[in-house]
Amino acid sequence: MTDNLFQTFALNETITLQNRILMAPLTRCMADEELVPTQAMADYYARRAEAGLIISEAVIIRPDGQGYPNTPGLFSSAQIDGWRVVTDAVHQGGGKIFAQLWHTGRVAHPHFFKKTGSTDVLAPSAVGVEGSVPRMRELTYQVPKAVTHEDIAQLVADYSQAAANAIDAGFDGVEIHGANGYLLDQFLHHDSNHRQDEYGQTPENMARFALEVVDAVAQRIGNERTALRVSPGAYFNMASDERDRAVFDYLLPQLELRNLAFLHIGIFDDAMEFDYLGGSASAYVRSVYNKTLVGVGSYTAQSGSSAIAQDKFDLLAIGRPFIANPDYVSRVREGKELVEYSDEMLATLL
Ligand code: FNR
Ligand code: 8K6
């Protein structure tokens, strides 16, 4: 039984979703050399327009946010025009789409933005990550530069501008990428935030940058069109630290006051338990945040539907199965078998 997935869901007075299934953000590294979305990307998203809401693959807000090849941007007029083709195609199919706004912080690599003349990798503190860019092993990660107050003000302004560009490009809203060990998340965890100023040390200080970005974006495009993804449990590009719990205990009620379109968990498998959160990431967030929550992470339609029935979250995001099944929503509705996902499918845009 998956009937509850096919109920409409009002995010607020402005946006109502045709069902409770979201397509999770999925980086595909298929934009052109100017980081402009292609027609093949428009076709790929349009094939998935039956989702209640598509969250786009992560989209970089400015050149020094790039950490992977051919990830699309939202900072040039060609990129805005390219996205307009995508959003038109999704809307023609009856769907809705949010842009996921991204800066990779300390996992950016100057290889991708050297033509801008900048070689600085930006992060809260000068604490690097081990390793190198996936599938480009020669590109080892660089020790980042700790951002100055001027850098922070510019980053906040650039998130806000990218959000305005997203609306200009026809997106229905934006999801700020605050998860998976990228820039916003780097401020929220002790592993990456060693700052001694008003952006570090205490929960209130460590949450400051994320809230400044959320507030700037919400002010620019409206809180009803602004969403956020968070990873209270560190699991990717990041070591966990039990002190992080207090940061999220402070941040989440603050976010609740902002009346966002939704809050989305960033995780690959929601069965993962975190000692310092007292269980799974979604159970923890549900216990401190009382507004619309999107669950994700190795769910099937059946397990996601029963999680919704048990009030563990309100909406279900589906990632890898949506790569394997462009018609995921119809297949589930009609009880048809799904094609199983495999990593080789990442090579093409089905
Ligand atoms: C992801 N994920 C991801 N998350 C995110 O916030 N922004 C992104 O751009 C991406 N990109 C991405 C690419 C690929 C190839 C995978 C497999 C995953 C994480 C994704 O949104 C989701 O949380 C996980 O895939 C878990 O959900 P599923 O796949 O188990 O339904
Ligand atoms: C070159 C493609 C870059 C895509 C970036 C997004 C992440 C891709 C998914 C890789 C899987 C990461 C595994 C995370 C650990 C899960 C622990 C349970």
Beta-strand content bin: 5-15%
SSE pattern, N- to C-terminal: EEEHEHEEEHEHHHEHEEEHEHEHH
Summarize the amount of helix as a percent range. 25-40%
* Rg: 19 Å
Report the strand count.
Answer: 14
Query: Count of DSSP helices?
Result: 11
Q: Which class best fits the helix and strand makeup?
A: alpha/beta
Placed side by side, the strands forming the largest sheet appear as 3-4-5-8-9-10-13-14
Bound molecules: ligand FNR, Octadecane
Largest sheet: 8 strands, parallel, barrel
- The quaternary structure here is single chain
Outline type: globular
Cα distance spanning the termini: 28 Å
- Mean model confidence by pLDDT: 98
Low-pLDDT stretches: none
Domain NADH:flavin oxidoreductase/NADH oxidase N-terminal: 5-337
Organism: Shewanella nanhaiensis
Protein name: Alkene reductase
Pfam families: Oxidored_FMN (PF00724)
List keywords for this structure.
350 residues, alpha/beta, 11 helices, binds ligand FNR, Alkene reductase, Aldolase_TIM
How would you describe this structure to a colleague?
It is built from eleven helices and 14 strands. Strand 9 (226-230), helix 7 and strand 10 (263-265) form a beta-alpha-beta unit. Helix 1 (39-46) packs parallel to helix 2 (77-92) and helix 3 packs parallel to helix 6 (208-221). The model has no long low-confidence stretch (mean pLDDT 98). 31% of the residues lie in helices and 14% in strands. It has helices at residues 39-46, 77-92, 149-168, 183-188, 203-206, 208-221, 244-257, 281-288, 301-309, 320-324, 328-333; strands spanning 9-10, 16-17, 21-23, 53-60, 97-102, 122-123, 145-146, 173-178, 226-230, 263-265, 273-274, 279-280, 293-295, 315-318. It has 350 residues and is α/β, with parallel strands linked by helices. The chain has an eight-stranded parallel beta barrel with strand order 3-4-5-8-9-10-13-14, surrounded by five helices. The protein has a two-stranded antiparallel sheet with strand order 1-2. Residues 24-27, 57-58, 100, 177, 179-180, 229, 266, 268, 296-298, 318-321, 346 line the site of ligand FNR.
